[in-house]
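Sample entry copied in:
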Amino acid sequence: MFISKKAGKENCNMSNRIQRVNALIKNELGKILLRDVDFPQGVLATITRCDSSPNLSEAKIYISVMPDKKVDKVFEILNRRIYDIQQVLNRRLNMRPIPRIEFKKEEKTKKAAQVEELLEELKE
């Protein structure tokens, strides 16, 4: 099977574009959440990553929340305000298409913390 260099280069550029779009969305949403969304007192909500689809029609935004008992409240607030947040993002980003955002609970950081805890126990 023959794959041209140009096709491989386009694929690399497309992947690079998605990575840049992910970084841009993560950065802008961080600013929006900090300025425009009121979270309960003592809550730390962090955008851990953004995964955009290859055609940039949607983006999954992974959020880590501390303390764990406030996760449901934070996601209730985010999902209630998602339309407003999307509108602000649409105005800030100078690109087309702008992915439709969807908030997801970050599970990887919790799993990583559990693995680290197990490794610490093994050391002792």
